[in-house]
């Protein structure tokens, strides 16, 4: 499924916007990592990076495989006066432009459903994590209540248009996801599959 960068930016701002502060708070609550370096994979127009920057002191690399999306992200970051905190970077999860042990935190909402190789993506995430670092990777709306509100909003839009504006991402089964993480050689992880969404929580222990 191709994502039009400008269409996605509009949907994020007009429909999905309540999602990102909730997920950002869930990430900080899970790990307690409020400073250091964060990588946001498949950042899109950078809404999660922006939400996380507002509640932490993290230096965030907002990475996306689309150069056009990175340009839109940069515009949004500038609008939020966060250019000294969030840095858009063009890159692929399968070959990230970061050295080993680079980041304290790696996050992603919505991108893993589009990775060409799930296991290789998780292997790269583990590579760039520092010891004692954490990963919060997956997709969802943060809560079941918010998911219903957003779906209803899309339903209202669809009733006024001939186009179906709500296009759900490709599905990943729990077994497929677990196998991908296991094959990446990651031992310390857990899966969340509830009203908040489907998430992989990774802990990289110090040797």
How does this model look, in words?
This protein has one domain: 3-Layer(aba) Sandwich (Rossmann fold), CATH 3.40.50.150. Helices cover 40% and strands 23% of the residues. It has seven helices and seven strands; from the N terminus they run H-H-E-H-E-H-E-E-H-E-H-H-E-E. The chain has helices at residues 5-16, 19-31, 47-53, 67-79, 118-128, 144-159, 174-183; strands at 37-41, 59-64, 86-90, 103-109, 129-139, 189-194, 197-203. The chain has a seven-stranded mixed β-sheet with strand order 3-2-1-4-5-7-6, with helices on both faces. Helix 3 links the parallel strand 1 (37-41) and strand 2 (59-64). Helix 5 (118-128) packs across helix 7 (174-183).
Supply database-style keywords:
alpha/beta, 23% strand, Rossmann fold, 207 residues, seven-stranded mixed β-sheet
Compact description:
40% of the residues lie in helices and 23% in strands. The chain has 207 residues and is α/β, with parallel strands linked by helices. The longest helix has 16 residues, at 144-159.
**Radius of gyration over alpha carbons?**
16 Å
CATH architecture: 3-Layer(aba) Sandwich
CATH superfamily: Vaccinia Virus protein VP39
Might you state the CATH topology name?
A: Rossmann fold
Q: Write down the overall geometry.
A: globular
Count of helical stretches? 7
Please state the average pLDDT score.
91
Q: Runs with pLDDT <50, length 5+?
A: 161-166
β-strand amount: 15-25%
Protein name: Methyltransferase domain-containing protein
GO molecular function: methyltransferase activity
Keywords: Methyltransferase, Transferase
GO biological process, one term: methylation
